[in-house]
Design goal:
mainly alpha; 6 helices; about 0% strand; 3 domains
């Protein structure tokens, strides 16, 4: 495992050197906003994993939809938490992890409620097409989540 991690670090360092050399302005912009970029990549990874696991559990293994959906959600939720904690916000503290997980879960529940409420307002009151409304709501919740994670869940001492 250490060999693999060392190899990944070398690959990362050489890729970073090439990127900064070829596109220095873009590299500086990415460095300035790397938490946001990592947040989006981590969320996209968790979403992709959720869909892949749902397909595996329900589509291939023929588990009941509720069981498959729940299992996919739980596993992708844990991956999302780990990516946001350790990679996006570089919070390696182990002593706070259980509390952070519960706050993270509570925020997910708030996001679910907010999603339903905002969808209702946009679709029913303002007559926005439901898919466009979901895109708008997802962006609002993503900004909310980023701020909550940065300033409350994984805040630095």
């Amino acid at each position: 495992m250490r060999g693999l991690i060392g190899e990944l670090r070398r690959y990362y360092a050489s890729s970073r050197a090439i990127f900064s050399g070829r596109w220095p302005a873009l590299y500086r912009a990415c460095e300035r906003h790397k938490n946001i970029i990592k947040f989006i990549l981590a969320g996209g990874t968790a979403t992709g994993l959720n869909l892949a696991l749902l397909f595996i559990f329900h589509g291939l293994l023929k588990l009941e939809l509720l069981v498959a959906t729940s299992a996919a959600f739980i596993l992708s939720f844990l991956v999302s938490f780990a990516l946001q904690k350790f990679w996006t916000f570089r919070d390696s503290r182990q002593d706070k992890m259980v509390g952070q997980l519960f706050v993270y879960m509570g925020n997910a529940c708030i996001g679910l409620g907010l999603n339903g409420y905002l969808m209702h307002i946009l679709v029913e009151k303002f007559l926005v097409w439901y898919l466009l409304a979901q895109i708008i709501v997802s962006l609002v919740i993503a900004v909310w989540n980023f701020l909550v994670y940065k300033f409350f869940v994984f805040k630095k001492k």
